[in-house]
TrEMBL record:
<dbReference type="InterPro" id="IPR020845">
    <property type="entry name" value="AMP-binding_CS"/>
</dbReference>
<dbReference type="GO" id="GO:0005829">
    <property type="term" value="C:cytosol"/>
</dbReference>
<dbReference type="GO" id="GO:0003824">
    <property type="term" value="F:catalytic activity"/>
</dbReference>
<dbReference type="Pfam" id="PF00668">
    <property type="entry name" value="Condensation"/>
</dbReference>
<dbReference type="GO" id="GO:0031177">
    <property type="term" value="F:phosphopantetheine binding"/>
</dbReference>
<dbReference type="InterPro" id="IPR009081">
    <property type="entry name" value="PP-bd_ACP"/>
</dbReference>
<dbReference type="InterPro" id="IPR010071">
    <property type="entry name" value="AA_adenyl_dom"/>
</dbReference>
<dbReference type="Pfam" id="PF00550">
    <property type="entry name" value="PP-binding"/>
</dbReference>
<feature type="domain" description="Carrier">
    <location>
        <begin position="493"/>
        <end position="567"/>
    </location>
</feature>
<dbReference type="GO" id="GO:0044550">
    <property type="term" value="P:secondary metabolite biosynthetic process"/>
</dbReference>
<comment type="similarity">
    <text>Belongs to the ATP-dependent AMP-binding enzyme family.</text>
</comment>
<dbReference type="Pfam" id="PF00501">
    <property type="entry name" value="AMP-binding"/>
</dbReference>
<dbReference type="InterPro" id="IPR020806">
    <property type="entry name" value="PKS_PP-bd"/>
</dbReference>
<dbReference type="InterPro" id="IPR036736">
    <property type="entry name" value="ACP-like_sf"/>
</dbReference>
<dbReference type="InterPro" id="IPR023213">
    <property type="entry name" value="CAT-like_dom_sf"/>
</dbReference>
<dbReference type="InterPro" id="IPR025110">
    <property type="entry name" value="AMP-bd_C"/>
</dbReference>
<keyword id="KW-0596">Phosphopantetheine</keyword>
Length: 1092
């Protein structure tokens, strides 16, 4: 209609509404509902309600009648504002109805109403949000909450009268509070975007350009579509600020935006917020580099008058980098939920960190973590974490990686359970223009960055993502995937007898032609009734199983490995005689090889059959070491070294001769491992194996010789051929600048452990001092392999670990670290000495409780990991000596005996004294199963491979001195300079028990900080001993890992308010001030009309 009226007219019209409401007896803290369409009258009505002293309750006329009826009943408004077009939307309204189109409103006073006793502590609005019970809950927000929102954020945005804001969202969505009042309290212009235009990205972008919008507020879902619309348009925009809210931002969606030069003048901002804390909580100004960082959503720093805490289940702060629940305090915390006293007690809690007894925190239900810079990352809702086969998966992380895939414009991932009990991830993909990415292509590309358990099992292609009226993703409207959307698993033929038998049964029961070892029973059409039939058929084939195993591990390979054949084997002797000319399968009772394979193995050994002493399988941990050796792209994570200095070349030769003598004594040092073209790897004992001594030629002019030698033989780049015996060699060189010779001994973990190194050192010493004839007879490593494979039955191992782990369906992953196949790179190492007095007190408490010190350290480490992983039921790997059940002479045998197995520690509120006793009992019970494989143990849990059951280790070591009385003389002219221990786990604690004192060594990924973790352990041990001495009933959960400095930084340092922001303002008073200052300036625009 082309009328252009002033800011003053908005004030007049809203005053008339206010006076009508006041006539009805409406005043402070009353509620007035408003059910109108997007229009100028909508803003007039909202402002009029505030001027009357009441709080507005927005009712979107597009809501279903049932929801509107509930909102009216729950909010109990004193009056309802409508338009003629919405008058019939509300049924059975029992309160006064005022039609904003009624011309009689113009008869009311145009003066600003003066409402006695109205203050900023009175109600401004009640906005309803979705409730977990299905019933919406009304959030009561006061004037002061809203007023300080704009004063506290103004330094970031510098909003003013020249800004044009777009009202994009429904006024029933709290983002509209920021849009409407952000424009009007700053004297700006508010463009009301028509409902149909807001649903069309192309029309919306055109309107933004034509109207000169400078401030745009968007959900990320809506902005993705706006980015695409911009790509199809030639219009230029005037956007100064684009502010994201309403849902998590995956920054990767912004790549196309930042790629366009026309957008260079626009600042994008990510603001995390919730209705209960008044729209926004944090601020993060985005840069182009952020679009390259896939993964979590960076939400930045808190608004200065708020406090943000990341807390654990006990409402204690979690360390930097650890995921916890976000709590928000300060001036933005709303009054509470309307008519929900029990929910208010649950969500709006007393602030335990504040000196103000009235201070409250809002428990958001959102997951976050602190960065070292003091900013926050958002990781989704508690209920956005889905659990797939025991692993908690952040859907946002999968979406981020999928959105970055070739040919993908947008992507959403949800968890569906279309088959009861079979929850799976389903991806919905919007292809880029002209692209047609297949499910197989997307799966392959995701595999480059995601673990297999995080891969969607179905990929559904859509033309556009469905959105709700608020511009958020409408997850309920996403279609059920059909068969064509299922991601087929890469086929690999069944291996071994058990897999072949079970595959045949699957084919028969499921009616499929081909079953691969990675196929999933339920994906192929299996269900609970068929599962029962399958288990019965397996029993008929002498395969032990039960239904729980199938439901926990439904892939063919995992099922076959979990059940196995029921059989018992007698431990045999070595049947290869000296002088043997032909080795047959019957001579190899510890491995199953056919004649052709034996001949190939023998042919690979220098000297052939005459040089083969024995062939047998690998011990449990050797299998894992071989896996990592083969998986390493460069170097070898299990290759160790020791650097020595020698006073002469002759001394090196003497040392080498002594070591050769030890090699000749022990079969494990004359062993090579073969795996190529074999069904299972084997180790071959040679009768004779020569230790290699090689000169490394280096140039003194190129730098320090020791540094050069270490670089030349660095295990991160250098590999030994472990097929050849011995798995060790010496590289030496002359260091003229220091008048010495240097030798680096390389040795592989496949054939030694910490105990073996001590024995090896003492035997080298015996040879060098002429005492070799006094050494006891060597113990063959085959004895251990036989015990490990055949001593305790597989069934007994499984029964033990099922009892321990069957209800563990989530891994223990401190800091979220889950890569347990590292190569040692990027690992930081810190060693600390335990205070002598604490060590003495610790041993005293151990004696008092009748346990070893190891039990106390295991319990302390469990408490640290529980805090770092956010778990009360903690599982971590403990390194066992492996010699308890290894047979006679195991204490003096060389070889790889140690084994890593899971230890479960339940923390919670049990007393520390009970915790120590239970940990001791669990460790003691574990010793009987020290030869079980970690793979078997994990299969007995509810965490399905390849997800690791744990990602942290504890290695408790008793360090003994094996040197004799002539030690100094034997080592004359030789000095140990350096050595290195490496780990493929991201977090390892080693405790060295020195007899009297203790040393701690932490190896951790550099970004975690080994020194920090070591400090946590030291603090917990101090608290544990204090509690055992003074209050043994202290709950384990009371032991805090945080040092005072970090706790203060989390609670105070990153939560200090620089100043108090104005919160005594009334929203409508700010609008009245602008009406007085610039009465003719345009306030509102809608379609072709303007209201100024």
């Amino acid at each position: 209609e082309g009328r252009q009226l002033s800011y003053g007219e908005l004030n007049v019209r809203s005053n008339q509404v206010a006076h009508r409401l006041i006539e009805q007896g409406i005043g402070p803290d009353d509620r007035v509902a408003i059910c109108v369409e997007r229009s100028l009258e909508m803003i007039v009505g909202l402002l009029g309600i505030l001027k009357a002293g009441a709080g507005y309750v927005p009712l979107d006329p597009a809501y279903p009648a049932e929801r509107l009826a509930y909102l009216l009943k729950d909010s109990e408004p004193r009056a309802v504002l409508v338009q003629t077009a919405t008058a019939d939307v509300l049924s059975a309204v029992v309160v006064q109805v005022i039609n904003l189109d009624d011309p009689r409103l113009q008869e009311q006073s145009v003066s600003n109403p003066q409402v006695d006793s109205l203050s900023s502590a009175h109600l401004a609005y009640v906005i309803y949000t979705s409730g977990s019970t299905g019933l919406p809950k009304g959030v009561q927000v006061e004037h002061r909450n809203v007023a300080r929102l704009f004063t506290a954020t103004q330094p970031w945005f510098d909003f003013g009268p020249t800004d044009v804001w777009a009202l994009f969202h429904s006024f029933a969505f709290d983002f509209s509070v920021w849009e409407i009042w952000g424009a009007l309290v700053n004297g700006g212009e508010l463009l009301i975007v028509p409902q149909l235009v807001s649903r069309s990205p192309q029309e919306c972008y055109a309107l933004i350009c034509e109207s000169g919008v400078t401030v745009l507020n968007q959900t990320p879902s809506a902005f993705r579509q706006l980015i695409a619309a911009q790509g199809e348009s030639h219009q230029a925009h005037s956007l100064r600020q684009v502010i994201f809210g309403g849902e998590a931002l995956e920054t990767g969606i912004l790549k196309p935006w930042y790629a366009r030069a026309v957008n260079a003048g626009t600042q994008l901002v990510n603001m995390y917020g919730i209705t209960e804390t008044t729209v926004h909580v944090t601020y993060r100004a985005l840069q182009a580099a952020d679009a390259l960082q896939a993964g979590v959503s960076p939400i930045g720093v808190r608004i200065p008058d708020l406090q943000t805490y990341v807390l654990d289940a006990n409402r204690e702060p979690v360390p930097v980098g650890v995921v916890g629940e976000l709590y928000v305090g300060g001036a933005g915390v709303a009054r509470g939920y309307l008519n929900r006293p029990e929910l208010n007690k649950e969500r709006f809690i007393v602030d335990p960190f504040s000196t103000d007894k009235h201070a409250r925190l809002y428990r958001t239900g959102d997951l976050a973590r602190w960065t070292v810079e003091g900013t926050l990352d958002y990781l989704g809702r508690n209920d956005d974490q889905v659990k797939i086969r025991g692993f908690r998966i952040e859907l946002g992380e999968v979406e981020a990686q999928l959105s970055a895939c070739t040919g993908v414009r947008e992507a959403v991932v949800i968890a569906r359970e279309d088959v009861p009990g079979d929850k799976r991830l389903v991806a919905y993909v919007i292809p880029a223009q002209g692209a047609t990415p297949s499910a197989a292509d997307l799966r392959d590309e995701l595999l480059l960055n995601l673990a297999e358990h995080m891969l969607p099992s179905a990929f559904v292609t859509l033309e556009a993502l469905p959105l709700t009226t608020n511009g958020k993703l409408d997850r309920k409207a996403l279609p059920v995937p059909d068969q064509s959307a299922l991601a087929s698993r890469a086929y690999e033929a069944p291996q071994g007898e058990a897999e072949t038998i079970i595959a045949g049964l699957w084919q028969e029961l499921l009616g499929v032609e081909q079953v691969g070892r990675h196929d999933h029973f339920f994906e192929l059409g299996g269900h609970s009734l068929l599962a029962v039939k399958l288990i019965e058929r397996m029993r008929q084939q002498d395969l032990s199983a039960d239904v729980r195993v199938l439901f926990g591990q439904p892939t063919l390979a995992a099922l076959a490995a979990a059940v196995g054949k029921q059989m018992r084997i007698v431990v045999p002797a070595n049947l290869i005689p000296a002088g043997c000319e032909h080795i047959t399968p019957e001579m190899l009772p510890l491995v199953d090889l056919d004649q052709d394979t034996i001949d190939r193995v023998v042919a690979s050994v220098p000297g052939g059959v005459a040089n083969v002493q024995d062939i047998y399988a690998l011990a449990p941990l050797q299998e894992g070491i071989l896996y990592h050796h083969l998986a390493a792209a460069e170097g070898d994570p299990y290759l160790q070294y020791a650097l020595f200095s020698f006073d002469s070349l002759e001394r090196i030769q003497q040392f080498t001769a002594a070591l050769q003598g030890v090699v000749s004594r022990h079969d494990i040092l004359r062993t090579g491992v073969l795996w190529e073209r074999l069904d299972e790897p084997v180790q071959v004992v040679w009768r004779h194996a020569e230790l290699a001594l090689e000169e490394v030629r280096l140039d003194p002019a190129a730098g320090d010789i020791a540094d050069q030698l270490c670089a030349a033989l660095d295990p991160r780049h250098y590999r030994l051929d472990i097929r050849q015996a011995p798995m060790m060699r010496i590289g030496y060189t002359h260091d003229p600048a220091n008048n010495r010779w240097l030798g680096m001994l390389l040795f592989h973990h496949m054939v030694d452990d910490a105990t073996s190194l001590g024995i090896l050192t003492s035997e080298i010493e015996a040879f060098m001092s002429g005492q070799a004839e006094r050494l006891p007879a060597s113990v063959p490593y085959r004895n251990y392999v036989a015990q490990a494979r055949l001593g305790v039955s597989r069934e007994a191992h499984e029964a033990f670990f099922r009892d321990m782990l069957s209800d563990i369906d989530e891994p223990t992953l401190p800091f979220g670290l889950h890569n347990v196949q590292g190569d040692g790179q990027g690992i930081q190492e810190v060693r600390q000495v335990v205070d002598a007095a604490l060590g003495q007190r610790l041993r005293a408490q151990a004696r008092k409780l009748g346990v070893g010190p190891a039990s106390l350290y295991h319990l302390g480490w469990a408490r640290v990991l529980g805090a770092l992983a956010g778990r009360d039921e903690v599982v971590f790997g403990t390194v066992l000596l492996g010699r308890m059940q290894a047979g006679e002479g195991a204490d003096r045998a060389l070889g790889m005996f140690i084994n890593t197995l899971p230890l479960r520690v339940d923390l919670g509120d049990q007393p520390v004294s009970n915790g120590v006793r239970k940990t001791h009992a669990n460790l003691s019970a574990l010793l009987a199963h020290e030869h079980a494989s970690l793979v078997l143990a994990q299969r007995c849990s509810g965490v399905e491979a390849p997800t690791p059951l744990f990602s942290a280790l504890l290695n408790y070591r008793h360090l003994e001195n094996h040197s004799g009385t002539d030690s100094a003389a034997a080592w004359e002219g030789i000095q140990a300079l350096a050595g290195e221990e490496r780990t493929n786990y991201p977090l390892t604690l080693s405790v060295d028990d020195l007899g009297e004192g203790f040393n701690l060594t932490v190896m951790a990924e550099a970004q975690i900080g080994a020194e920090r973790v070591c400090g946590y352990m030291q603090r917990v041990m101090h608290q544990l001993i204090d509690a055992l001495e003074q209050a043994p009933q202290t709950p384990l959960s009371n032991l805090s890992i945080l040092p005072r400095s970090e706790r203060e930084q989390l609670l105070q340092g990153w939560n200090l308010s620089e100043k108090n922001f104005a919160d005594d303002l009334l929203i409508h008073r700010a609008v009245e001030a602008w009406a007085l200052k610039q009465p003719s300036a345009t306030a509102l625009r809608f379609e072709g009309r303007q209201l100024s």
